[in-house]
Write a structure and sequence with these properties.
By secondary structure, this protein is of the alpha+beta class. The chain contains 6 helices and 18 strands. Helix content is 20%, strand content 16%. It has a two-stranded antiparallel ribbon. Strand 3 and strand 4 form a beta hairpin.
Length: 289
């Protein structure tokens, strides 16, 4: 360690190893550092977990020469507990690698459990345990368990607060950025993708599954109809006499050129206020003179 990290003395290295590495893993750390002298400065995620822990501690202490390894799958700074070909990955990447079609809802998600016949179940379809809450005593679905084994219902459970890296406010972590930084619910923005029904790049309401592609909020409410060319069922436009799926439209087929996916949005005049716009919309709805 002293030979591979500039500015690290023997006393600090010894204290770091004896405090943070179990005795049963000392030989594995020694073999890896002898075979890879730059393991703490190269950022290689294929190192043993003890070496990754040492790199994270040195980086927190301000040792600039140390590079904390990132996830081999998503590149985020997270705990890397799973080894794959080429390095180590986080829990989210492992779940995505083992994702399959749920036997109940059909969505392609990580397997939370399996039925008696072996069919996979996602986290939404997995039966949740119902038992008395350890705090309020009511029989509800258990959200999280305490160290003594008792469970907490969703009402009594309070997620730990962390500082959001966008607004810098201490709040429960709702999501994480690409770098692994916590994001609160107020700052989180759902990622946008291309809708498989209308082709717009917008917020996805229904994720792709074995039965349909990603669908936006508008296409998620449309009635599926067979395509006029390939006969594949898709969320058709309600006014289309000859509905075409997105694949046929991408191929250049267009049977109804006057049919638009989105109606034109009326532009607001510079002197219009929100109150004027609201009154105009109400007049259009009730058709007042």
């Amino acid at each position: 360690m002293v030979a591979g990290v500039p500015g690290l003395d023997v006393g600090a290295a010894s204290e770091l190893v004896t405090t943070n590495v179990a005795r049963s893993y000392l030989r594995a750390v020694d073999r890896h550092l002898h075979a890879h002298p730059d393991a703490l400065t190269s950022g290689d995620s294929g190192a043993p977990p003890s070496v990754l822990r040492i790199a994270a501690i040195l980086a927190d202490r301000g040792v600039t020469a140390v590079r904390v390894p990132r996830c081999h799958g998503c590149g985020a700074l997270r705990e890397l507990r799973h080894r794959v070909e080429g390095g180590r990955i986080c829990d989210d990447c492992r779940r995505r690698r083992h994702a399959t079609s749920c036997g109940r809802c059909g969505h392609t998600r990580a397997v939370a459990s399996r039925t008696d016949t072996g069919e996979p179940l996602c986290g939404s379809c997995h039966p949740k345990p119902v038992e008395p809450c350890g705090r309020c005593g009511r029989s509800r679905v258990i959200q999280r368990r305490l160290s003594d084994g008792s469970g907490l219902c969703p009402v009594c459970y309070q997620a730990p607060s962390r500082r959001c890296h966008i607004c810098a406010v201490d709040a429960p972590t709702y999501s994480r950025s690409d770098d692994g930084e916590p994001i609160c619910r107020g700052c989180y923005q759902r990622p946008t993708r291309r809708c498989g029904g209308c082709g717009r790049t917008t917020r996805v309401e229904l994720r792709a599954s074995a039965g349909h592609p990603d669908l936006c909020p508008r296409c998620a409410t449309r009635t599926p109809a067979p395509c006029a060319l390939c006969r594949a069922r898709h969320p058709a436009h309600p006014k289309a006499r000859y509905p075409l799926c997105l694949d046929c439209r991408d191929a250049g087929h267009l049977l109804e050129p006057d049919l638009t996916e989105a109606p034109p949005v009326a532009r607001r005049r510079p002197d219009e206020t929100d109150h004027d716009v609201l009154r105009a919309r109400i007049r259009d709805i009730i058709r007042c003179p």
